């Protein structure tokens, strides 16, 4: 076998650790199911990768955290010592994850205790991506990727020639799951660190943050909110408030950017009252029109009489550098802004990126759903539950299912 794709359990998004700790402390008994989905047909059938995928999963399940890695995690002020102790003995269990094929389709499912299977997601996506793109001309891809990377750096440097807005531009790498390769992500992030340090402020990749001495970035993802849909500890109508309250109690002021689109921005804002608006530092956009979303956020803060200059909006939905700059110029005189770019940083190689996800589909045997503000991002395997959820939160289902 060639050099394994995953060589460290830190080579994943920070929010996997922050959600992991919260679930370990509050709901360690949850049983969960995650499924891999390819949203668009790839140029090469993913089923052809099955043997390599299984070998990579075998290797992943043999990895452990090193003492050096545990010291790094333990030095993050929001990571608690008992979670580090748990990670010291943690190892992915191979029986909890299965990869198989049906025709040209690759299927991967992780089923088991959530605190033992939730970590698979990012590694699986990184593995499938890298194996897939190894099938193409690497020399041509890397040359084109380098050319495009240099363009991005120059686009960013235009900020230095403009009149300053009230709040600075801040860029983050969010590209682990969609990267061309681990080596290419390292090169891209290192380039931005060296060439544009005044604007490039961190990465979601914990290993890269450690290796390059930059800030690890991340708070929560949809799976955190979705789990609360199925816990049964509160009415479904109150699952967002329960999830937000648990986060506040776990982190007590740290990691204060809330994700807004598990059931859509409008439904989120109905639950994001003055209490939460004061406790959280800001909001993250991941679907729908970013300008419309941002204006709704600012209007909500204004209605609550909160100074928007004290809050932050983080945009992270399929961005490239020009789009991020456009959004920045629209909002930066009114609110702090951050921009997390994934695919267009770490897999802009002249090749068509894969559209793949690995998402939570059920918890404790109950279906969960992500509705979001973009029809193409809707995820749910149970139409009955989806219709019930939309009724509870007054979301129009026909609009969500339209092409």
Automatic annotation (TrEMBL):
Changes after translation: Transiently phosphorylated on a His residue during the reaction cycle. Phosphorylation strongly increases the affinity for substrates and increases the rate of nicotinate D-ribonucleotide production. Dephosphorylation regenerates the low-affinity form of the enzyme, leading to product release.
Which residues are recorded as modified (Phosphohistidine)? Answer: 222
Single Gene Ontology BP term? NAD+ biosynthetic process via the salvage pathway
Chemical reaction(s) catalysed: 5-phospho-alpha-D-ribose 1-diphosphate + nicotinate + ATP + H2O = nicotinate beta-D-ribonucleotide + ADP + phosphate + diphosphate
Q: What EC numbers are recorded for this enzyme?
A: 6.3.4.21
**Keyword terms of this UniProt record:** Glycosyltransferase, Ligase, Phosphoprotein, Pyridine nucleotide biosynthesis, Transferase
- Gene Ontology cellular component terms for the protein in this record: cytosol
- Signal sequence: where? none
Residues in Nicotinate phosphoribosyltransferase N-terminal domain copies: 10-129
Q: Recorded GO terms, molecular function?
A: glycosyltransferase activity; nicotinate phosphoribosyltransferase activity
Q: Which domain of life is it from?
A: Bacteria
Gene3D superfamilies in UniProt: nicotinate phosphoribosyltransferase (3.20.140.10)
The protein's matches in InterPro entries, at most eight in alphabetical order, are given as: N/Namide_PRibTrfase (IPR041525), NAPRTase_N (IPR040727), Nic_PRibTrfase (IPR006406), Nic_PRibTrfase-Fam (IPR007229), Nicotinate_pribotase-like_C (IPR036068)
* Nicotinate/nicotinamide phosphoribosyltransferase domain: residues covered: 169-396
- Pathway membership, UniProt: Cofactor biosynthesis; NAD(+) biosynthesis; nicotinate D-ribonucleotide from nicotinate: step 1/1
Q: Name the enzyme's class.
A: ligase
Looking up CDD domains in the UniProt record yields: PncB_like
NCBIfam families with a match to the protein in the record: NAPRTase, PRK05321.1
Q: Tell me, what does this protein do in biology? A: Catalyzes the synthesis of beta-nicotinate D-ribonucleotide from nicotinate and 5-phospho-D-ribose 1-phosphate at the expense of ATP.
Q: Do you know which HAMAP family this protein is assigned to?
A: NAPRTase
Q: Which family does it belong to?
A: Belongs to the NAPRTase family.
Q: What is this protein called?
A: Nicotinate phosphoribosyltransferase
